[in-house]
Amino acid sequence: MPFEIPTDLNPALVGLAWLRGRWEGTGFREWPGEEKSEFAVQVDVSDNGGTYLHYLAQFFATDADGKPVKELGMETGFWFPQADASVDVVMSSSDGYSENWYGKLQPGRVDLVTDAVVRSPIAGHTYTAGRRLYGLVEGKLMYSFDRATDEEELRPYVWATLERR
Question: What predicted TM-score, i.e. pTM, was given to this entire model?
Answer without folding.
Answer: 0.93
